[in-house]
Amino acid sequence: MRDINNFLPFWEGFSVVSIKPDGYALQIDLIPQATRFPTCSGCNKPSTTTHEYCQRLVRDLPILGHPVRLNVELRRVGCGACGKRMEAVSWRDRYSRMTRRLAEAVIQTCRRLPTLHVAQLFGLHWDSVRLLERRALQAELDKRPVIRPRRLVMDEFALFKGHRYTSVVLDADTCRILWIGE
Question: How many Å apart are CA 86 and CA 77, to the nearest integer?
Fold first, then answer.
């Protein structure tokens, strides 16, 4: 019989113990591979000391249309340099309750569909989708080189009928919005 870990190689350093239906979703139990030492999430150095084990529920990409919840057994390591820290996991961001694969799929889908549809498609809350989208946009902005504007353009427009106005400041050369305020 073939090993199931050959068919589901998505969770590096962990082995699938069981797959069971949990209502409409699939719950997959993962344990650390015995041959792999945990690495400290602070300094990324391997550690031989395991302080404790804890369980985390992590969302992953759907399989055959069914939402996937990973029940992951994580190790808290005793690092000589950093103290007691959770082990680093390559397919999950620190403190995140979803895999990087799911986060990347949500971000890619947000480029083509409205936020509400993406949230319904992946079974996530609207705020979670917006947070992922905002982080991706910020990461894209951080990659761009900082260009100091040489000329500014300022304009005001009315928000409502009456006397409430909003000011907009733009870079005249690139037409990039620099500031918006009431």
Answer: 6
